[in-house]
Amino acid sequence: MFRYTIRRLLFAIPTLIAISFIIFALLDLAPGDPTANLPLTIDAKTREQIRISLGLGEPFHIRYIAWLNQFFVNEPLNIVEQWFGIEFSGSAERLRIRSWSTRSPVVDLIIERTPQTLWVVGMSYVVGILIAIPIGVISAYRQYSWIDQAGTLFSMIGFSVPTFFTGLVLIVIFSVNLQWLPMIYDTTHKVTDWSSFLFQVRQMAMPVMVLALFNAAQISRFMRSSMLDNLNQDYVRTARAKGMKEHVVVLVHVLRNSLIPVVTVIALGVPQIFGGAIITEQIFRVNGLGALLIGGIEAADIPLVQTLTFIFAVLIVGFNLIADLVYGILDPRIRYD
Amino acid sequence: MTDAPTSNNTGPDTDMEALKPHRSLWYDVWAQFRTHRGALAGAAVFALILLAVGVGPYLHTVDPTYLDYRSKNMDPNWAHPFGTDNLGRDMLAQVLAGGRVSLAVGFTAMGLSLLVGVLIGVLAGFFRWLDGPLMRLTDLFLALPLLPLLLVIIMLFRDTLRRAFGPETGIFLLIVFVIGITSWMQTARIVRGDVLALKEREFVLAARSIGTRERRVITRHILPNVLSPVMVSATLGLANAIITESALSFLGLGFPSDFPTWGRLLFDGKDFLTLTPSRVIWPGLAISLTVLSVNFMGDGLRDALDPRIRGR
Predict the structure, then answer these.
(1) A307 contacts in B (CB within 8 Å)?
(2) DSSP A258-271
(3) Of B148, B284, B299, the CB nearest to A165
(4) What is the distance of C-alpha A265 from the center of its chain?
(5) Beta carbons within 8 Å of A297's beta carbon, 6+ residues apart
(6) What is the dihedral of CA A135, A136, A140, A142, to 10 degrees?
């Protein structure tokens, strides 16, 4: 298992370096001038000074290496310092990735926005899994029954109807017509007592449900096919022959074995959920990472967009790694060592 | 594969065969496809949508960009079956015109993604020395955060392409290109797997032994045999392209608002939810129905093209 882990880790490093280069090069070589939106009264000499102050004076490869250094060395050191309260030498002159539009460190902006996204995204993933697993189990156990047909239709609708449409329909129904739920997510809301907690639940209901339905549609399909693969296996017959109760056979023996591939699918899906959250946050005006990215793109804030996009890439590579490792732990046949 | 009886082979079996009508592969596929109720319904709905978008603008001859301030924000009525927007433009005409653009983007991007996917899949499967590098490239593309990258590419290159090709063609080319170039990976993987298996089959060996050139082996023997997985991924690709285009337009980074697409209509309509909710319902319903019908067709096609499922 140790060698397997090391091999997977070593595969992840070149991938990350290649992706960081693609993202950096794409944003850097694109046409467009960061000073183009400044007033026309600024003369050429001042413009050049502004460009240099933004760090654009150096050649491409120097800036790329500096950015890598800032991302992989400086910012992690800063986070370690903040968490443990230790001072490393030279923490004052350590360069940080700064946003062009706000001039504050990009990592601080990201840390500020992460909780909102994590609450909505994490909650929706949990709710989605909780919906998906029973649907998958029942549709596989009663294959071709009406409940299976309904489950198939549900998942088909779930991944065909885009989240931005389900979100808007929910708003029309529950906010405009029934007026039960707030239309806009209030990120400054603090939970202090019971009524404010209820408000928090109400404002989270719609964004969470939109994403949860989408997740449930995909996971329930995987759950169903994985259950179907296992239900015909010999060990199931053995368990029944031993005289075990049917619910023990299905919910203990078959479900546990069927969950192995589903767990990896769940891990692989996490980064996509962050991508989907970009759209959901836009619908419900959640002030999270997706909104930060869209704002950065609209303001042509290159360092912010570079860093945020690369963090999404790190999430994808990281969760691929986690999925591989979890599969290796749960199913020893997969480890090849 | 043909079951047609030959003259020099007479026996009880072939006499029975001779009574049956001639069956071709595509007839079998169609027969299996027909038994899938969802797929049939999907095909019918999709044909209806294509027909509405293709013929509709000739029947409902209101200009989608015509501004009529006196009849703005109207609910559906006889003159405007889907209502009007905040500038008095007719929504039905806009949905029909938007459908043309959305479907055109969907089909073109799907074609591009299939082209790239099949090319890379065949090259990687057929030539051993290309397999490693091309599959690493595929893995790399699969690890890219696609939606953020699409948004970034569109933001960066929008203005340059607009200047080069005009506002509408430029953005059309850009969106088709970025969707096509970021959605070929699944096709490439499936095609590579199939080509790897096909390459070892006897008919390829036979073709090689009579001196067929490699290019000819690929076009004549390999490509027709990977057609079925490619058709299934074509349906998935079409659905994916339509959703991606709508998502980009919905985030305000797609087509300009005087050039409606379904996603753009949703984006423009979402600020008027309390006033005219029908402005988001119709384009959203159009996207959802199209994608749903295409996905059902893909589901039926997958069953119909799978010889293990197809009843013989």
Answers:
(1) none
(2) HHHHHHHHHHHHHH
(3) B284
(4) 14
(5) A305, B151, B152, B155, B253
(6) 0
CA–CA dist A6, B310 (Å, integer):
45
**Chain A residue with the nearest C-alpha to that of B298:** A156
| Burial profile A139-176: b = 16 or more Cβ within 10 angstroms, e = fewer | bbbeeeeeebeebbebbbbbbbbbbbbbbbbbbbebbe
CA dihedral (A205, A207, A210, A215) positive or negative: negative
A293/B148 CB distance under 8 A: yes
Q: pLDDT, tens digit, for every residue of A60-114?
A: 788 888 888 888 877 777 777 777 777 666 666 667 777 777 778 888 888 888 8
Residues A235 and A237: their CA atoms lie apart, in Å, by 5
Name the one residue in this structure whose structure tokens are 């305000």. B252
Q: Which residues pair with A98 in a beta bridge?
A: A105
Q: Beta-carbon neighbour count of residue B218 at 10 Å? A: 19
What token pair was written down for A56? Answer: 């654009």
| The two structure tokens encoding residue A19 | 């992706």
Task: Please state the ipTM of this predicted complex.
Answer: 0.81
Phi-psi region of A233 (alpha: psi -120 to 50; beta: other; left: phi over 0): beta
State pTM to two decimals: 0.83
What is the torsional sign of CA B191, B197, B200, B202? negative
